[in-house]
Amino acid sequence: MSGQPGPGAVMSTVRSIVPLLVALVLAYLMQTVVATMIGDFYGKMLVDVGIAIVLGVSLGIVNGFAGQFSLGHAGFMAVGGYTAAAIVYYGSIKLFGTKAIYGGFLGPGELLLLGACLAGGVAAAIAGWLVGLPSLRLRGDYLAIVTLGFGEIIRVLIQQTDDVVLSVEKVKQTDWYVLRDNLGGGLGFIGGPRYIDPKNPFWVWLFVAVVCLVAYRVKYSNQGRQLLAVRENEIAAEAMGIQTTRAKVSAFMMSAFFAGVGGGLYAHELGNSLRPADLGFQRSIDIVIIVVLGGMGSISGVCIAAIGVTLLPEIFREFSEYRMIVYALALILMMILRPQGLLGLKELWEIDWRDVGRSLVSAPGRLLRWLVGLPVVIVGVVRRLPRQLRATLTGRELDDDEDAP
Amino acid sequence: MTAPAALEITGLSKSFGGLKAVTELSFAVPAGALHGLIGPNGAGKTTVFNLLTGVYQPDAGSITLGGERVDGKKPSAIARAGMVRTFQNIRLFGDLDVLDNVRIAAGVRARSGLARSILRTPLFRREEAEILERARYLLDVLGIAHRAGEQAKSLPYGDQRRLEIARALATQPKVLLLDEPVAGMNTLEKREMRGLIQQLREQFAVSILLIEHDMGLVMDICEHITVLDHGVTIARGVPADIQCDPAVIEAYLGVPDASGEEAGASMSGPSSPSDPDGDPDATGAH
């Protein structure tokens, strides 16, 4: 960040666009070099990791920066995903006359996908505004409950929609505003072209770069600091002149926008099914886990966590049914050893490694304390539980004298 | 007194249920003045601050800031209009570093929104540079520049109070409300803070309204004092008059003839509140 004002408007504009060009080149290299090098199995992971990063970083804007605990991220993802899927599927038929992939790399079909993802983002951002405006006056658990409810409402609404119109001829004859009700219901939106596959990670990684760049620039700006102020102490933030509700709503909308884009990308990935059941509460939790593990407020931390959470289940595929247990254990360990998440508020390059060293040295001790302490608590609870149960079942008041030997 | 008042309060009243927290409070703080607001615990001082900053809405009366009515506005709007406070129980942005705490406040009037921040336009860069410059300057003035990179919550108590003042000043206020700035400080720290308050007032041409229990400090630096008891103004005037006002002495020390010893106690020592357990917000419990 340069402290000198006035390097010239042209230079400034150039400087602000350069990172985007770099991102384009990187995404292009990802497409042409990396994807062909690593093959389909790892190519699929590359795409999955990218989508996880888009979703994680976008949730990090509202959960991490603004400190508003949202459990509705999958809901925004669903809004964006279904919007994009409908545009691409019905749009392909109406524009190109086919529901298969149309055109090659950067061809008309892919440009339709790009437009559809952006439209999905806009739709999700509007949904974010509608939900955020009334609910962001709530705090903590209450906001979590409202956003959770929002996600479920979206899921149920989608379940109520009609089947996808599979016949190309029929789609051509039907008006678009009728087709908006044909989103597949509980069966899922099937039959759409899958533009994103292991050989084509370009669009995913382009949006990875965009979301990281946007999040970074927001974090290191006056606007971002104001969000952090809201997270740190809302009363003080308001007293210093920050319009807290407005700040929170804009963070919420930005987060929802990229969740919608992420949903659009997810909807067009080969092998994914776009079903309401896949975009429910569990998906929201998965994204929250990424943010909590990576660090509330750290972009690079969330990226690392997204990579880990996506790759580890693939590596330990034979133990996949234990995934949630491992997540739970990882979260408990994190809460004990590093409650602020992997990187906390910091970015990878801001870390004080001596701190990390100290924290590692003290980790076994802290863990031991918990390992000793936890059984004591559990034994205490378990010993009391049967009596409590008995008392509840017999409708008798719990007699505390029983504690006496 | 020809200069227009920076802050003018007329007939300000607020009650919670049947409890009259503040009754018909009126006073004016001339531009550049240092006005004291004192009273025993539970007198309603902090309630007055909460009314002034828009945390509570007054039942009656008006608050005029430099000629502009601000009562009924939101706290953030009042802060941007030029009246900002510090907190009795410190409320910093604890996990952020000291510099960012001040930068946040310095940036509240910045015009760059999200779009400009993401695009990094020339205006954005200029504003960021200004914000940084002002923040560094304020840290310098308050003597905590060497702590710029530290986490706010890790600062020693006295520096946290200084940071609160730096943060408040960063919003470029016309009126600064200080809620017990020397609470919990030792004699040396108090003396430093006294010098600092006087210096800031001149350097930033800001009017200050001060709530304080430390009578020595209040009598020493305030030009004008308003004394509250149970939300009612029982005295107002220059420090010398307040010190020997019978109503004030009674409010602080009880009825003079209840104990001969008490009446002789000096007003310049630390206050001996009539209700030692009372929370300042729980006004006048009978």
Q: β content of chain A, as a range?
A: under 5%
Between the first and last Cα atoms of chain B, what is the distance in angstroms? 39 Å
How would you classify the quaternary structure?
heterodimer
| Average pLDDT rating of chain A | 87
Identify low-pLDDT runs of chain B. 258-286
Helicity of chain B, as a percent range: 25-40%
Strand tally of chain A is 0
> How many structurally independent domains of chain B?
2
Q: Would you tell me the overall average pLDDT of chain B?
A: 86
Going by CATH, the architecture of the largest domain in chain B would be 3-Layer(aba) Sandwich
The description of the largest β-sheet of chain A is: none
Total DSSP E strands of chain B: 10
- Adjacency order of strands in the biggest sheet of chain B: 6-7-8-3-9-10
Q: Structural class given helices, strands, pairing of chain A?
A: mainly alpha
Short description:
The complex is a heterodimer of chains A (405) and B (286). Chain A is mainly α and 405 residues long.
What are the salient characteristics of this protein?
heterodimer; A: 405 residues; mainly alpha; ABC transporter involved in vitamin B12 uptake, BtuC; 2 domains; 14 helices; 71% helix; disordered N terminus; disordered C terminus; B: 286 residues; alpha/beta; Rossmann fold; six-stranded mixed β-sheet; four-stranded antiparallel β-sheet; 10 strands; globular
